Amino acid sequence: MIVRKPKELPPTRGPESGKRLLELLTVLDKLRSPDGCAWDREQTPRSLIPYLLEETYEVIESIERGDQEELKEELGDLLLHVLFQVKLAEEREQFTLEECLTAQAEKLIQRHPNVFGGAQVDGKSPVNQNWETAKRREKRRVSRLDGVPRKLPSLTRARRIQEKAAQVGFDWSHVEPVWDKVREELQELQAAHQANDIDALEDELGDVLFSLVNLGRFFGVSAEDALRRTIAKFEYRFRKIEEELKRQDKTPEEATLEDMDAIWNRYRNKH
User: Fold this and answer.
1) Which element (helix H / strand E) includes 199?
2) What residues of the chain score a pLDDT lower than 70?
3) DSSP 8-state code for residue 10
4) CA-wise closest residue to 108 among 224, 234, 4, 228
5) Boundary-marking domain end, from 186, 203, 221
6) N or C: which end of the chain has fewer CB within 10 A?
């Protein structure tokens, strides 16, 4: 199989993009310099982790809101943190930006033999299998489940674990058994509650959540995204409760559940 190298690929960006990238790198160099910013100079790869996570989630929120101007800004913020991590690695002589970019381009080419090597595949599943096989070989992974970061949000990690197992055939062929599993886990959770078994309650609640993630996977719905959307709805409606009670010179503590339910129900279909 002939694999094209990154340098043989046609350019997809003009020189202006490269100039802007170099400009950003120059600004970052200045911030890290002795006469730059004290805060930027004291940062380490670990100290930047919370900010990297925050920017990642701000990108996700921008995408979900469909706000393109905000997305443009948040992607720039995220790119800055990626370049900041590379800058720190360069200062420690661990790797360079050029090495990072070259390795990524070569990896994409190697993992897409259907695009760059002439391999024939039908549909997305063989492509995904080729990708996972290549990753497992490159990183010398033992289990098919290796490689899913433990720091991922639990609902997202559960789905990725399920997807990896499904790629080797450990999966139901249709959705009905998944529904059955959800009902079974709910019954076991109820039984643990009735028995007042605290340890079992935690286990069974986890099983219910895992089975619901799996159900969402069969629907093509991300449980993480769905829960985030529901949280946003709850926040919107609860804030409306607070606003209306304030207009009535009441606090939530002073209102009855019936009062709050009545306001909640008025906003059920408005967000």
Assistant:
1) helix 198-219
2) 1-13, 118-142, 271
3) P
4) 4
5) 221
6) N
